[in-house]
C-alpha cells in the first residue's frame, strides 16, 4: 500500500497546494498518519484530498459543507462495511434461517403486507 509525504501528495494531485493541504488538515477533512518518518498520507488520504479539491473547485463548497460531505461519506462507508459483514454472516446460516430472515426483512420494508398486521 502506497503512502506519501506532503510533498509527494502535492506533486500527484494537480490542484493541491501546500496551503490547501494544510487547510484540509486544519479543518480535519483529512487526517494523516504521524510516524517516526514524519507525516504520511495513505492512498485513502490521496482519494479524500482529490475529492476535497474537486468539491471545492467544481461546487464551491465551503469548509462546513466539505466537513459535512466527508462525514456523510465516512458514515456511508462504515455502514457499507456493516452491511457486507451482515450479508457474509447471513450466507453462513442454514437455508431455513435465511428464508425466515428474508421474509422478516420484506415485512419490515413493507409493513402493510405483513401477515401479522391483518
Structure report:
The protein is mainly α. The chain has 5 helices and 3 strands, in the order E-H-H-E-E-H-H-H. Strands 1-3-2 form a 3-stranded antiparallel β-sheet. The protein starts with a strand and ends in a 9-residue tail after the last helix.
What structural category arises from helix and sheet content? mainly alpha
Q: Using DSSP, what is the number of strands?
A: 3
Biggest sheet statistics = 3 strands, antiparallel
Helical content stands at 55-70%
Q: What form results from the Cα inertia axes? A: elongated
Number of helices: 5
CA-to-CA gap between the ends?
56 Å
Quaternary assembly: single chain
Q: What string gives the helices and strands in order? A: EHHEEHHH
Low-confidence stretches: none
Mean pLDDT: 92
Radius of gyration from the alpha-carbon trace, in angstroms: 21 Å
- As a percent range, the share of strand residues is 5-15%
Amino acid at each position: 500500500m502506497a503512502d506519501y509525504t506532503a510533498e509527494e501528495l502535492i506533486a500527484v494531485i494537480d490542484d493541491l497546494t501546500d496551503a490547501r493541504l494544510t487547510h484540509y488538515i486544519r479543518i480535519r477533512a483529512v487526517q494523516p498518519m504521524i510516524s517516526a518518518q514524519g507525516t504520511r498520507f495513505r492512498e485513502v488520504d490521496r482519494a479524500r484530498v482529490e475529492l476535497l479539491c474537486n468539491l471545492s473547485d467544481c461546487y464551491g463548497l465551503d469548509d462546513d459543507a466539505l466537513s459535512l460531505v466527508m462525514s456523510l461519506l465516512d458514515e456511508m462507508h462504515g455502514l457499507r462495511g456493516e452491511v457486507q459483514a451482515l450479508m457474509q454472516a447471513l450466507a453462513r446460516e442454514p437455508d431455513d434461517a435465511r428464508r425466515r430472515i428474508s421474509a422478516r426483512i420484506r415485512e419490515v420494508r413493507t409493513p402493510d403486507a405483513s401477515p401479522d398486521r391483518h
